[in-house]
Amino acid sequence: MAVADVFNIEKKKVAEVDLNDAVFAADVNEAVIYDVVKMQLASRRSGTASTKTRSDVSGGGKKPWRQKGTGRARSGTSRSPIWRSGGTVFGPHPRDYSYSIPKKVRKKALISVLSMKFKDNKMVILKDFPMEKISTKVFQKVVDLFDLKKALFVLDDNNEILLKSSRNIKNVKMIRSEGINVYDILNYEHLILLEPSVKKIEGALLV
User: Fold this and answer.
1) Torsion angle of the four alpha carbons 140, 130, 187, 101, in this order, in degrees rounded to the nearest 10
2) Whole-number Å distance between alpha carbons of 58 and 149
3) What is residue 72's three-state secondary structure?
4) Residue 76: enclosing H or E segment and its boundaries?
5) What is the pLDDT of residue 61?
6) Do 15 and 6 touch, CB atoms closer than 8 A?
7) pLDDT confidence of 4, banded at 50, 70, 90?
8) What residue ranges do the domains of the chain occupy?
9) How far apart are CA 147 and CA 137, in angstroms?
10) Is 26 within 8 Å of 201 (Cβ atoms)?
């Protein structure tokens, strides 16, 4: 079983915690990571792009000229796609890009990225993060002390003081353990876990 150091916000080691190898020391499967990230990004697409077809553009109710005798190609409407300001052929229309993949695959991808962060020493476990009041300055001192350039903090509950203290700090994001996902873990260099969230994550992934 893997063992990780537990620090306080002063960067002093205060304890050790046993990590389940099935979650934090598993083999990294890049294929399932790719599949899940692709799914997450597809789900975030707005899908609002839209173009007008020949039936949507204005004008063109009258035949531009008579069918025969003009020497020009026959034409029935100025809304034709080959005309300037005519309709668009095969253009995009509002659609839902989201799709789903099996739950087991999503879990495997999440385990892979957690194991990757642990093996690369990019994961830090904090005993807690005590703050009596909202203070961006205090929070920033902790970020600087751990030399966190881009960090994802995983909380075990909805801590309003931490959330509001960190919201104005660039490249720092707070999520609860229930919302942990593959894309965010990969998008941030460091993963910061509050100790109570470790067991919650393990419990959710080993069901």
Assistant:
1) -160
2) 53
3) coil
4) none
5) 86
6) yes
7) very high
8) 2-46+99-205, 51-91
9) 15
10) no
Number of neighbours of residue 181 by Cβ within 10 angstroms? 17
Phi-psi region of 147 (alpha: psi -120 to 50; beta: other; left: phi over 0): left
Instruction: Look up the pTM and report it.
Output: 0.84
Give start and end residues of each alpha helix (H) in the chain: 21-24, 30-44, 103-119, 136-145, 160-166, 182-187, 195-205
What backbone torsions phi and psi does residue 157 show, to the nearest 5 degrees? -150, 180
The residues with which 17 forms a beta bridge, in sequence order, are 4
Residue type, 85: S
**Separation between Cα atoms, residue 177 and residue 22, nearest integer Å:** 17
Question: pLDDT over 90 for what percent of the chain?
Answer: 93
In terms of C-beta distances under 8 Å and separation of at least 24 residues, what long-range contacts does 43-50 make, across chains too?
43/97, 43/98, 43/99, 45/97, 45/98, 47/94, 47/95, 47/96, 47/97, 48/94, 49/92, 49/93, 49/94, 50/91, 50/92, 50/93, 50/94
Cβ-contact 167, 139 below 8 angstroms: no
CA 110 to chain centre: 12
The CATH number of 2-46+99-205, from 3.40.50.150, 3.40.1370.10, 3.30.465.10, 2.60.40.3230, is 3.40.1370.10
Chain segment 173-194, per-residue pLDDT in tens: 999 999 999 999 999 999 999 9
Tens-place pLDDT, residues 31-53: 999 999 999 999 999 999 999 99
